[in-house]
Amino acid sequence: MTEKTKEGKVSLKLAQLYHRQGKYKEAAELNKKALTIMTESGDKFGEGVCYGNLGTDFYSMSEYVKAEEYLHKALVITKETGYKEGEASSYGNLGTVFQSLGEYVKAEEYHQKALVISKEIGDKQGEATDYLNLGTVFQSLGEYVKAEQYLQKGIGITKEIGDKQGEASSYGNLGAVFQSSSYRVGGSRSVFSKLILNNANSITTIHLMEII
């Protein structure tokens, strides 16, 4: 590994740290720096990670058109390099972008593609996230029965793998579904009691890609 390549990977790691701290602009600048280095050195895997993480940076800054552009580039490269986990993340993140743009049918399509890959590679965490995101899509479409079904599947997996944060997020979204619908009057109270115990809010999930 050359010094330049090492510099690129350090920039990527630092960018991920900044992103998790909510410093999205700083993260994007570092990801752009890393992208230049990865592209110049011919590291296609690293290039795909940079594009994917730039997509999450711009999504987090509510710049959805830019986020979509970067995530599509990440998707192309993860397919080329056979990076299945990255491909699933790209599909899922694009689904979340389309959801934020109000394009729910397209969002469902991309989340379903992410779910297929997550199952294929045995990524339980990814599978749970895909179910959670699909649940929120169906909630937005007013298809509350489907929303509940997907969220319950997500809850089952988060319990199985011991993901308390994901479990709480799923309960939060499930409670929101019950509040939005009239088909189950008593459901919301029991779900929100579980939500309070887990101390979490309703969310839609987007993923950073990890550099190896």
Can you walk through the features of this model?
There is one protein chain. α8 (144-161) runs antiparallel to α9. Helices cover 80% and strands 0% of the residues. It is elongated. It has 2 domains: 1-82, Alpha Horseshoe (Serine Threonine Protein Phosphatase 5, Tetratricopeptide repeat), CATH 1.25.40.10; 113-205, Serine Threonine Protein Phosphatase 5, Tetratricopeptide repeat. It has helices spanning 3-20, 24-41, 44-60, 64-81, 84-100, 104-121, 124-140, 144-161, 164-180, 187-198. The two termini are 13 Å apart. The longest helix is centred in the N-terminal third of the chain and has 18 residues, at 3-20. The protein is built from 10 helices and no strands. It is mainly alpha-helical and 212 residues long.
Q: Can you tag this structure with a few keywords?
A:
2 domains; elongated; Serine Threonine Protein Phosphatase 5, Tetratricopeptide repeat; 212 residues; single chain; mainly alpha
Give helix and strand order, one letter per element, not per position. HHHHHHHHHH
Main structural class: mainly alpha
Helix content: over 70%
According to CATH, what is the topology of the largest domain? Serine Threonine Protein Phosphatase 5, Tetratricopeptide repeat
Separation, N- and C-terminal Cα atoms: 13 Å
Anisotropy-based shape? elongated
- Please give the CATH class of the largest domain: Mainly Alpha
Q: Which architecture name of the largest domain does CATH use?
A: Alpha Horseshoe
CATH H level of the largest domain: which superfamily?
Tetratricopeptide repeat domain
How many individual domains?
2
The largest β sheet comes out as: none
Low-confidence stretches: 195-203
The total strand number stands at: 0
So how many helices?
A: 10
What amount of the residues lies in strands?
A: under 5%
Mean pLDDT over all positions: 87
**Radius of gyration, Cα only, in angstroms?**
18 Å
